Structures are given as structure tokens and as C-alpha cells.
Amino acid sequence: MKIRCMKTMRRFAGMIALGCLLSSGSALAYTTTTENGSAADAVMAALPYGYLSASAETVVDSASATEDMQAAKNQVEEEERQAREAAAAAAAAAAAQARINQLVNGSVTPHSISKSSSLAADSVIKNNFKKLGNYRLSFYCPCATCNGRSDAKTKIGTKMAEGRTIAVDSRVIPLGSRVYIDGYGVFIAEDTGGAIKGNRIDVCVANHSRAYQFGIDYADVYLIG
Fold first, then answer.
1. Where does the record place a coiled coil (predicted)?
2. Which residue has the higher pLDDT, 106 or 7?
């Protein structure tokens, strides 16, 4: 009898409501309302009313429990998604702050320079430092031809060094400032020059042949501090 009852329940699995009524005699009549709104009547052999009523309640309770379990699962998944997003955002913020600290406080040591896409200004630079504009870049070296004497020092008294020294218009970029040149990296404004006015920067390289090799270039410039 239980199997027959469950088959009948599955036959009307799309029901929205189930009403159970005892008919006259020993049979039990019930009506189901399906999803499309049609009604279906059936008469089953004599079954105790309490048995069928309990079976119907079990089906309804089971469906409700399934919905509750799905809702709980969805909530857990949503909380896990939010936790992952928060962790990713925190990691990105920490990485950005580390990058800022390195740009502002990291050492700027002399090194051989070259223009590289790996040194292109990234989002940390663009979002956190002032863009001064697009500058005309020229290149010079510590030789007598470029400076009038081979032992010349920079305007602030340091030894000229490729990978660190640039000459600027101090009215635009204060001497001692850190500057990021898109494609070249971080430099320090240590020098000035008679022809270096406005949006122009003279980048120090090791020798005259390298200065000729670089020629003239244009790049976006950011003031680090």
C-alpha cells in the first residue's frame, strides 16, 4: 500500500497543494492541483485516513526541508565567495602598498639602463603618483663634451651615474625628487642643464657612445616624491 501511495504522489509531482478528504464508505477521495492549474481526482482502496494524511505531510515536510537545505547551501557559498573576494582585495592592497613603499623608499642604485616594456608605468604608479606630462628625453654622459670637464659633479654635488642621475628644470621638478620615467624606471633629479627647460629631461648614461645610441625619446613622467 505504501508503494502504491508513493507512485500516486510521483504521478502528481508537480502539485502545488494536496487536499485529503474521506469519502463515504471505505474509499478515500482526494484532489490534487497541478502546476498548469488542472485538477485530477482519484479514488484509492481503503486506507486509513491518518496514514495518507501522514504520508502527504511527510512529502510536504521533505520538500520544505530540501528547500531549507538548498537555501543554507546557497548562503554558505555566497559567504565563501565574499570571503574569497575580500581576501583577494586585501592581498592586492598589500601588494600595491609594498610597491608604493619600494618606489618611495627603495634605493636607486646606478645600473645600465634600457627602455623596456617591463618598466612601463603600472596601475600603482598611475593611480598614486602625479603625472607631470609627456617629456622629451635626451641623453648625456659625464664626459668633457657634455659637461665642459670630465670630473664634473651634478648640481647637488653627487657623482653622475647611469641609472640614477637625470638633469631637470628645477622650476618644474625640484632637485632631489624621485621621478618615474615610463619605460625606463626610477631616477633622481640630481642635475640641471642650460638647455633643459620645461618638459625636458636629460638622462645620464655611462659614455658618449651610449648617449648617441639612445638619441631622443619621449615618455610619460611621474613625480614619485
1. 62-96
2. 106
